[in-house]
Write a structure and sequence with these properties.
Blueprint: H1 2-18, E1 20-22, E2 24-27, E3 30-32, E4 40-41, E5 43-47, E6 50-55, H2 59-62, E7 63-65, E8 67-70, E9 75-78, E10 80-85, H3 87-92, E11 97-98, H4 105-118, E12 124-129, H5 143-148, E13 154-158, E14 163-166, H6 168-173, E15 185-190, E16 193-200, H7 201-207, H8 215-231, E17 234-242, H9 244-255, E18 262-268, H10 274-280, E19 283-284, E20 288-296, H11 326-336, E21 342-347, H12 350-364, E22 373-376, H13 386-390, E23 394-397, H14 399-405, H15 409-417, H16 424-431, E24 435-436, H17 447-456, H18 476-482, H19 485-489, E25 508-511, E26 528-533, E27 536-540, E28 551-553
Parallel strand pairs: 1-7, 2-8, 3-9, 10-17, 11-12, 12-13, 17-18, 18-20, 20-21, 21-22, 22-23, 23-24
Antiparallel strand pairs: 2-5, 3-4, 5-6, 8-28, 9-25, 13-14, 14-16, 15-16, 19-20, 25-26, 26-27
Helix pairs in contact: 8-9, 11-12, 14-17
Length: about 550
């Protein structure tokens, strides 16, 4: 009997010693790998931030770890990737007055009075108002601002970042008069007087006069916003249009161990950057990648800055405008086509989309793997969808734009043109894939709203009942791919992240319910229980009303 026990112990320790040690094992889970076959796994082994095995229970026989997570049959997905947002811009806006959701100009004025008492700077800077949410859906004018703040500059930016209102003090500092001319922008006048409304490039005249916040404060804000991203399951994002100085702050925050998420950055369209970055090429330090330029073709539909092929339905004799001459886009495309840098161009209106698609086509020549992107691709003429497929141009879209704009978009476009606006399924068919993002802070940071808007074409109140232009909804699988592997693919990172496969970064999230099967009405109730980056937990939901999964710590010395 004693000999049998010894043999059994020897066999046990032999099996244990034969197992490979890893840093973390997740088991008893339902893991959506989002691989090519969309397989569902049960167990995942992680070592040095990478996935070393994923599959069934047999993995538990091959690997051992001092740290295991019993997922209790919870759902695990790849970490979400926001393919288009303004992370650093939103972070450094945290000192500004938040005007999102205001219902009238009068409400803004009252908020501004309160903010003025504690504002950290002389400038009173607010952002994210939207006149389309007001009873009177018209741009305000500056008279009340001038009356209340004659000696203090006020600058309030619209939600899309393509229009703003400034008081006379701010206009004086920027030296804007009724005679000021600006290319690619608008300085609104009525009866020969400035209204304070500035559109697109005209905004730069004021914004360059506003002092930037201190670098250390900016880095602090990066850390605060990162926590919110992790809480929503975002482990990677594409920051669209940053300066070299902002890049240096991201790198500094990384060195200080503040920045842990993956940031793919597009540089702003600055001629001073071209030659330097054409020589340097794509840059990657492990967490931060610089892969191209973010360019603006036109403005936004809500502020009537989108460049259309024919007149606005609600503003005859007005078609919007391009923000730069056509030659500017052509010259930049010719510079970038022989580099490994991507050209990613904001295009909202059907005229802007046509111009950019043709410019891309002229330099790309045909099928290619440059993965140049059109950001938003919001209104596309039926004749122009073909360019995406013929020249492998990537549509990078934001589903919540459709559900935010659906209340008034037809007023801008008319009943015919609206049919090929926010046409995500039509765009997906061109290449068989599409990248999805939020454009936060233009829209909510919440990726579950992206999921709802894509699959149901409904807003957070589940309106409209049958969905907005439901024929262009994406399937749940397409949507999840668009928020993970296709987002990664749109910036050449599909071998590193975007799906849970051997050799890839262990960026994953544990959710409270299954996005593939949950009722549409309950999608927004989904909770991110835990978020992991490189196999390390960066977020756990701690509210008592929410379920938290324990990490089982095993002491090897007690085996």
């Amino acid at each position: 009997m004693k000999n049998k026990l010894i043999i059994l112990l020897l066999l046990f320790f032999g099996i244990v010693s034969a197992q490979k040690k890893v840093d973390l094992i997740v088991h008893n889970a339902r893991i959506y790998t989002v691989n090519q076959n969309f397989d569902i796994a049960e167990v995942m082994a992680i070592s040095k931030g990478k996935i070393v095995a994923i599959g069934g229970k047999e993995i538990l026989k091959k690997y051992t770890s001092t740290q295991k997570i019993d997922a209790q049959q919870k759902l695990i997905y790849p970490g979400f990737i926001d393919a288009h947002c303004h992370f650093t811009g939103f972070a450094t806006d945290r000192w500004k007055l938040e005007l999102w959701g205001t219902k009238s100009w009068e409400e803004i004025i009252e908020k501004l009075k309160i903010y003025a008492k504690t504002a950290p700077k002389e400038w009173l800077y607010g952002r994210s108002w939207d006149q389309n949410d007001w009873t009177v859906k018209e741009f305000p004018t500056k008279e009340k601002l001038d009356e209340l703040f004659p000696d203090r500059p006020v600058y309030l930016k619209r939600i899309d970042g393509h229009a703003a209102i400034a008081n006379q003090k701010a206009l004086d500092i920027a030296k804007i008069t009724v005679d000021t001319k600006i290319s690619g922008g608008e300085i609104e006048q009525k009866n020969g007087k400035l209204t304070g409304i500035l559109g697109d490039n005209a905004m730069n005249l004021v914004e360059k006069m506003i002092p930037e916040i201190e670098d250390d404060l900016a880095i602090k804000y990066f850390g605060e916003l990162q926590k919110e991203c992790f809480a929503f399951g975002l482990t990677s994002l594409h920051d669209c249009g940053i300066t070299e100085h902002t890049l240096s702050l991201l790198e500094k925050s990384q060195k200080q161990n503040i920045l842990k998420m993956n940031v793919f950055a597009l540089l702003e369209d600055n001629p001073n950057y071209y030659e330097k970055w054409l020589k340097k090429g794509r840059y990657n330090n492990g967490k931060i990648t610089v892969g191209g330029f973010k360019v603006y073709a036109d403005g936004a539909l809500g502020s009537r800055g989108a460049c259309l092929l024919s007149d606005y339905h609600d503003k005859p004799n007005w078609r919007g405008f391009l923000l730069s001459d056509k030659e500017h886009f052509e010259n930049l495309a010719k510079k970038l086509v022989n580099s490994d840098l991507q050209m990613c161009t904001h295009a909202i209106g059907d005229s802007a989309n046509r111009e950019i698609l043709k410019i891309y086509a002229d330099v790309l020549k045909g099928k290619n793997d440059k993965r140049w992107r059109v950001e938003h691709a919001q209104i596309v003429n039926p004749a122009d969808f073909q360019y995406f497929g013929k020249y492998n141009i990537v549509p990078s879209v934001q589903p919540t734009h459709a559900t935010s704009d659906m209340y008034w978009a037809e007023e801008r476009l008319g009943s015919e043109r609206i049919k090929t606006a926010y046409a995500y399924q039509d765009l997906l068919k061109q290449n068989g894939w599409i990248a999805l993002g939020t454009d936060f802070p233009v829209e909510d940071i919440n990726p579950f709203k992206t999921f709802l808007a894509a699959v149901a074409r409904k807003d957070a109140q589940n309106y409209p009942e049958n969905g907005f232009q439901k024929e262009n909804a994406l399937t749940r699988e397409q949507t999840l791919r668009g928020m993970t592997i296709w987002a990664a693919k749109s910036v050449f990172q599909e071998k590193e992240r975007g799906s849970l496969e051997v050799g890839k970064n262990a960026d994953f999230i544990i959710l409270s319910q299954n996005l593939m099967t949950v009722n549409e009405r309950d999608i927004l109730k989904t909770q991110v229980l835990q978020t992991f980056v490189d196999g390390k937990k960066v977020h756990q939901e701690n509210e008592k009303k929410r379920i938290c999964l324990p990490v089982e710590i095993i002491d090897d010395t007690k085996k």
